[in-house]
Amino acid sequence: MSRTAAHMAAFRALESARESDHRLFRDSYAERFLPPGERALIALSRAPLARHAIEAYADMRAPGARTSGIARTRLIDDWIVGEVSDGVEQVALLGAGYDCRALRLPELASVKVFELDRAALLARKAKRLGPPPANLVRTPIDFLSDDIGATLLTAGFAPEKRSLFLWEGVTNYLSEPAVSAVLRLVAACKATIIFTYVHADAVNGAFDTPGLPALLRRLQRIGEPWTFGLKPEELADYLAVHGLRRRADLGAAEYRVLYGRGGSGKEGYEFYRVALAGPL
Ligand SMILES: C[S@@+](CC[C@H](N)C(=O)[O-])C[C@H]1O[C@@H](n2cnc3c(N)ncnc32)[C@H](O)[C@@H]1O
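^ thats the input. predicted complex w/ S-adenosylmethionine below
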């Protein structure tokens, strides 16, 4: 089961415990995926003093991971809402993990949503959330061995409809051919994709930012090592080769500042990027 998916749920639960005028979003489902000890901490964190201490501890353990994850969640929410209001009819969440956008974003209630992830994770998600609403289909996949096009078609995905793909927190765990296959499919559907990637120098440990060596060791230990990254300066060409045009590409230092969650200095995770791409 993905520990990193649970970490993202923990960050979202912590953010959701903030007062309504101090949070970037509210994900009331996130805490259902946490073990009892962490759920107790989330309950404690409703008191601002306790929350500051819990946030400081999380930021000390993995510098920049929480602030980057929170700001990125809000940025992606905003991009999704923009695309849906622009006419997107179906959304595929690739490596959806414990992302509950299909339930928490009202804008997604009127479009078809597909959530793809490993079978065991989806089974656990279904157990915690109960039956999905009629517009949501959960479909198992292994991006490293399964054909994504065939998987989506079997699930009822209609390639001729205006589509948006979200691939958050996943490319860094895959191989180049697996990444390539998804991008080719997106281009073939003339669709839009929002995806995250890590700077190639973060995968090999050369990126200069606090906490990276310890983070890479921890990922190895939990069996979720990073295996794929890209250089931002090469992204536009990489996408073009796959038939896609880069529309936006921001690093954590930029999107944290956009949402008032940090300065642009080295606070960690600057290598974690989010991009938006569409047809050429
Ligand atoms: C860091 S989590 C991100 C989850 C979610 N997108 C989010 O942002 O909260 C990575 C997700 O990718 C999924 N994943 C990793 N490798 C995969 C593979 N080969 N096939 C299917 N899913 C995979 C994991 O199960 C996990 O849910």
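The two ends are 37 Å apart (CA to CA).
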